[in-house]
Design goal:
Layout (H helix, E strand, L loop, with lengths): L8 E4 L6 H31 L6 H29 L4 E3 H34 L4 H4 L2 H26 L9 E2 L6 H6 L7 H32 L5 H29 L9 H24 L2 H15 L11
Helix pairs in contact: 1-2, 1-9, 2-3, 2-9, 3-5, 3-7, 3-8, 5-7, 7-8, 8-9
Length: 318
């Protein structure tokens, strides 16, 4: 009979064992986290307060900001603590929670980005039917479906992964508990349940990618037919940032999860999760606010409302 050790916790080894580099990583992660936190909180607050932003596009953007906050808060604060301490430990339940929340937020975000691409397709390609198709009930259903599906996948992944036996070293060569690193330290030689979960997840990701590609194919085809360059530029400026972040999110996620678990850990394994866990929550607020006239106007109204709450701008922020 095999001798398995009961694992009560794991060690997150991070990027380096050198103290100076760990401090540098902690400072870098802290700056990234503060940018993501302030940006997403600002967008969430603006959309909640300004009734002129209560449209389907901004409803989905508000949900995206909340998901980004949850995703980066699940990983980065714990990583900063580990970088600055000599323990580098995470409890078994803490690791389970990290895996569950990362899959929940990532899966929900992918589905939400798919809904956002459909929203842009209807707005640009079928503008006369926009209010009928993207009504409040349908938007709520899309958002709820994204959250529920992400939660189901999170529960499925975490249950299957942590049902495997772990033996030997409990060192995870990553800055958080991820699926590939956990499979490397598992005693099990077969991962049928995990493979099924991954196959289902990849199938869903492929379906979302195809749906997004079809939506943007129709969008770009319609935009190129617009006679005025100003309207074409406005349509492209709305869609291209969304598409860029989406491509980063999907391609790096695919590369990370399609890598065989028995391969040895490398620097690339450390960097890939950065691009689908840390980078999108940081870039999304910047991309959606810097090029967005409505967000800029809402920021100005919020500043004016804070200084003159009983002036004319009270009509904008009820």
């Amino acid at each position: 009979m095999a001798n398995f050790t009961v694992v009560r916790g794991f060690l997150l080894m991070g990027f380096s064992k050198t103290w100076e580099l760990q401090v540098l990583h902690a400072i870098l992660f802290l700056l990234i986290y503060l940018v993501a936190l302030m940006g997403n909180l600002l967008i969430f607050t603006l959309i909640s307060l300004d009734r002129y932003l209560h449209t389907p596009m901004y409803f989905f953007l508000k949900n995206l900001s909340f998901l980004d906050l949850c995703l980066i808060s699940t990983i980065v604060p714990k990583s900063i603590t580990n970088f600055l301490s000599h323990r580098h430990s995470i409890s078994f339940l803490g690791c389970v929670l990290q895996v569950f929340l990362v899959i929940l937020c990532s899966g929900s975000e992918l589905l939400l980005l798919t809904a956002m691409s459909y929203d842009r397709y209807v707005a640009i390609c079928q503008p006369l039917h926009y209010e009928v198709i993207m009504n409040k009930r349908n938007c709520l259903r899309m958002a709820a479906a994204s959250w529920i599906t992400g939660g189901l996948f999170g529960a499925l992944y975490s249950a299957n992964i942590f049902s495997l036996p772990f033996c030997g070293s409990n060192e995870i060569h990553q800055f958080f508990c991820d699926v590939s690193s956990l499979l490397r330290i598992s005693c099990s030689e077969t991962y049928i349940a995990v493979d099924v979960s991954v196959a289902i997840g990849i199938s869903l990701a492929i379906f979302c990618s195809i749906s997004i590609a079809i939506s943007y194919g129709h969008i770009f085809s319609t935009v190129l037919k617009i006679p005025t360059s100003e309207r074409r530029s406005k349509a492209f400026s709305t869609c291209l940032p969304h598409l860029i972040v989406l491509l980063i999110f999907i391609t790096t996620g695919f590369m990370d999860h399609l890598k065989p678990p028995w391969d040895s850990a490398s620097v690339l394994d450390m960097l890939l999760p950065m691009f689908y866990i840390v980078v999108p929550p940081t870039l999304n607020p910047v991309i959606y606010s810097l090029r967005n006239k409505d967000i800029k106007i809402s920021v100005k109204k919020l500043i004016a409302w804070k200084h003159f709450p009983e002036g004319l701008i009270t009509k904008s922020f009820p």
